[in-house]
Write a structure and sequence with these properties.
The chain is α/β, with parallel strands linked by helices. It is 42% helix and 15% strand. An 8-stranded parallel β-sheet has the order 7-6-5-4-3-2-1-8. The two termini are 29 Å apart.
Length: 252
């Protein structure tokens, strides 16, 4: 598998657009192949290009290449980048917040994020709903689940999310809010577990949620190293950074 395109400190500004185009093409080919292997329509899948630590110029380049969904995981960086991209005249992007969300950041995130992938507590849902209402913007929400308890002994937590037993309370908080739309579940596969096993557990939890909330049909799962397994398990949203943009630069 290719290591991806060079980062923004690579050969020079003229090479960067070509590197991004190459990385994006390779990932799209992987997604299409994974969809075909799973008997799915690639048009069912949303590729979210995660641009954390990369400049707004990269977002503009990706938008010109047809990317419509951009992911960020730090509020201050995301807010600034969204403003810079809009000021450059780039429209039509959906901004996804994919990082851990604290309730004290929810109002700011609601100002630019169309979709939040990391609601993990009822308190966060309440704060995000309040912020979305203040901005007059509906916000799509995935509830993030920690897969470790569902996978059994020997699997360490730490990748974020609500424990499976807490999902009914968190999903109810999102579904019962005024400005939030419950989309489904999100998870990150634990590092020490085969992605197939992790995403099978996620699919089971998602089925449980849909029995209570039939409209929560989306599934955010899969990153650069495990997108194929996520597609096979039913993922609809793939959060891919390095395979498109190359090694993440050291933040300044």
């Amino acid at each position: 598998m290719s290591a991806g395109p060079p980062g923004p400190e690579g050969p020079g500004p003229d090479a960067r657009p070509a590197a991004l185009e190459s990385g994006l093409r390779a990932v799209r080919e992987r997604v299409d192949a994974a969809a075909r292997a799973a008997g799915r329509d690639p048009r069912e899948l949303t590729l979210v290009a995660v641009t954390k630590f990369f400049p707004a110029a990269d977002v503009r380049t990706l938008a010109a290449l047809g990317v419509t969904d951009v992911g960020e995981s730090r509020d201050q960086e995301a807010a600034t980048k969204a403003e810079q991209v809009a000021a450059a005249g780039v429209g039509g992007l959906r901004w996804h917040f994919v990082g851990q969300l604290q309730s004290n950041k929810a109002r700011s995130v609601a100002g630019y994020a169309d979709v939040v992938h990391s609601v993990d507590r009822a308190k966060v849902a309440v704060a995000l709903d309040r912020g979305a209402g203040e901005h007059g913007r509906r916000t799509g929400c995935f509830v993030q689940v920690d897969l470790a308890p569902a996978l059994g002994a020997g699997v360490d937590a730490g990748r974020g999310g609500a424990e499976p037993g807490a999902l009914p309370a968190v999903t109810a908080a999102v579904a019962g809010s005024e400005w939030l739309d419950l989309l489904g579940l999100m998870a990150v596969a634990p590092r020490e577990v085969e992605p197939e096993r992790a995403f099978a557990a996620l699919a089971g939890l998602a089925a449980d949620v849909r029995r209570e909330h039939p409209g929560a049909v989306l599934l955010s799962a899969g990153m650069s190293g495990d997108l194929e397994q996520a597609v096979a398990a039913g993922a609809t949203h793939l959060r891919v950074g390095g395979a498109i943009l190359g090694p993440r630069p050291v933040p300044r």
